Amino acid sequence: MNELKRIGKQTVLFPSAPKMIATSSVVGPKEGEGPLGKFFHRVLKDDMLSKDTFEHAERAMLRYVMEDAILKQEGGFEGVDLLLGGDLLNQITSSSFVARELSLPFLGLYSACSTMSESLVVGAALIDGGFARRAVCGTVSHFASAERQYRFPLEQGTQRPPISQWTVTGAGACVLARDGVGPKIVRATVGKVVDFDVHDTNNMGAAMAPAAMDSILTHFLDTGTSAEDYDLILTGDLGILGSKLLCGLMEDRGFPIDGKHADCGAMIYEQEPEIDQGGSGAGCSASVLNSYIYGKLMRGELHRVLFVATGALLSSTSTQQGDSIPGIAHLVVIER
Amino acid sequence: MNELKRIGKQTVLFPSAPKMIATSSVVGPKEGEGPLGKFFHRVLKDDMLSKDTFEHAERAMLRYVMEDAILKQEGGFEGVDLLLGGDLLNQITSSSFVARELSLPFLGLYSACSTMSESLVVGAALIDGGFARRAVCGTVSHFASAERQYRFPLEQGTQRPPISQWTVTGAGACVLARDGVGPKIVRATVGKVVDFDVHDTNNMGAAMAPAAMDSILTHFLDTGTSAEDYDLILTGDLGILGSKLLCGLMEDRGFPIDGKHADCGAMIYEQEPEIDQGGSGAGCSASVLNSYIYGKLMRGELHRVLFVATGALLSSTSTQQGDSIPGIAHLVVIER
Fold it and tell me: Is the ipTM of this complex over 0.90?
């Protein structure tokens, strides 16, 4: 019988510690002007990448990071057994079409803006289980394609409420490997769907914060750790308001994270009125993790990061039909 | 170092052979009147299940089969560590909301009508790798929600071309387990995205047949097997025309499957003009595999089944923007 690699209620262990051996990131011009601009591998001058539609531009960004990450590591496509990814577009077409172009076996995933961590959870498990030598994991979002799919046509010029976030135009990818050098994925907690009955589709931070709380708290209890044991607890795209809510929820439960917490959405843009609560979108945490944070891990400025990307599992149909917005947060622990 | 459980180019092995210890299926009235009607666990009299929308009815069907499969096996929810699933609705809301209601850790998947086999691939890998004791895998589709999302409002009464298929109102789920009694998942081939430049969104069979060919052929070559080694090669929802295309493609490549091949979409309905080429939809293969085929495996009428559900990875946006329809087919080998 195979050994059970589980601890506590919901946490899994990766004894062979799959390595993040190469990463890539790309962002749009607005993200490039933000405080993390110099850390991204590529900043676009034209967020259309000369394509005819927003969706085709989004696809080109995902292709770029996946190919770039694969080609950065020794062997290139040789030994890359799987492509793991998803995106926000209906039927995850960005990912499916990139998988077609790269001609790699493909497992399509969907957990909205939690897809970067979902792909790392599944990738690390498949590598630790012996089912792949290397897997490329990643996701993407594009401001313009997300706005028109989830909210309003951009041409309409709809006024944004102050609790809203700005969907990041960005993508990130990472090659996970059995062998090689890089930060290691040592544990993960697969998230549950958590719903605190938020109905406001502009308030994504409030919809996702309870899911982040649930996964972080479960991970602490399963592993007997607390915020002190990590250099950084990095959420995906709760934004400024959502981050405050998460810190409050954790405080209430006796596991404060204030000094250790940062949020990719809260850090990616300069503060300006248009941006409101910060960034969101699957590409937000994907681009920040695979550039700025990866660099800090490689240089030894961070040793142990709890990465917990957060997703809001709504669709425009579920909203129209009166459903609340469920959230999910998949969590991985990355060690230098 | 962990053992590598791969063979050939693209095939993975599950030495511990995760077992399908319990299954459930539900279908609508039309499917209940078909030749497989008496094998489904539940046939609905009302395909709305007294819900207010098609989408809420679809969700209720998925919840029913997942809960039913879980409760059929000893221990019930205890020891079920994961819910793996997806569906055709934008942002896989049927699955996400069911995961919320059942409160299980959830990995959202998307590979259109190949989701049943994708969930079995990922589930078997996670169980064989030691990351879960039991996992519930499943998917759903509903004629009315799929038609209005992918094609036209039903109220419009659009005439259907003779190459079209009828989206199955149905769901299927299965509990995979480390321990227990039931048919075993012994191998899998993760599909590549294959595109033969089909643009006709009514001709799903033609769009998906090349992907089925690619996965079956790869599996044969990776494992040194051919159609003779299986009692049944069961595709998901190619329909009658798509099945003919698949058999022709396999014949051309020197690996004929004619005598061994069956297709869930081609067998689920009585032949009548309205049905055209047969059934389609993620729920088609999910409901047939987890009822009729599962029964045959349990009774020893089948010993080794190659199950290859097929998915068309289009969205209404990709179609509107002129993209062709890529297909994917994930494959598992199930042994008694």
Answer: yes
